[in-house]
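ingest -> validate -> predict -> emit
validate: passed (alphabet ok, no gaps, 295 aa)
predict: started
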Amino acid sequence: MITKIKVPSPGESITEVEISAWLVKNGDYVNKGQIIAEIDSDKATLEISAKESGKITLMVEKGEKIKIGDVLCLIDSSEKIPSPASKKILKEKNISIESIQGTGKHGRITKKDCILHLEEKKTPFIRSKKITPLSSLRRKISERLVYVKNQTASLTTFNEVNMLEILMIRKKYKDIFKKKHGVNLGFMSFFTLSCVRALKLYPDINAMINGEEKINFEYYDSAILGMHKIMERPVVVNGSIEIQPMMYLALSYDHRIIDGKESVGFLVSVKEAIEDPIKFFMEGNEENISKILEL
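emit:
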């Protein structure tokens, strides 16, 4: 709705006034009761206030003389006026002002109105999915993992091992080993020897709980040794920082039967054998490598 703001009479015998000051700019949003202009007459200076809230359109210029009863300005109370913050969003996002319902005072469009409008316009993200039946092997593995989880108190202990010595031995003897056995010389052989030694020191790694009894086996039963990728990392060697081929070891075990002492000790035993294979595998003499590798 358009509301006309007319020049009031400042007193008898006065037929015209002069616009001494506009207190708002053309196109501003004004609130009902807000002082928008001052007019001068021969007898007094009057303040003009807005009769409605809305967008103002000035009809005369400052300093211009106008007759009593003439229209000073128009106020469009139906006009949607954005706040400065929302105006910036409307421009950046190229949003039509007509598409937003203002919730601010007197229907003014606020920043929150713009944000809510943008959220409503977003295309909902739908994740695609593909359903594939599990193989019988995977189902059995899943069942066993859940069973083990429910029947044991699983815990994992970590350590790291320097693979430099094993890498050097492997590099030195791999061709002879392959010529003799027809297969590559891998790391698993050395870890197997290390685990055999460690299991002799910590036999409960090979045990399990059956009711109120402990059963020791001749094979690995209560723990799993995980060997991670070999990666070069900075380590301290004799007080100096050097880049060495390091591997993380992870021992997951049933904590009901294996305590921290045994798990840590087992990993340390594996670690020291891998890091000093000549001492622990070859009785301190590398010439015994032929016996170990069956060359």
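The chain has a mean pLDDT of 86.
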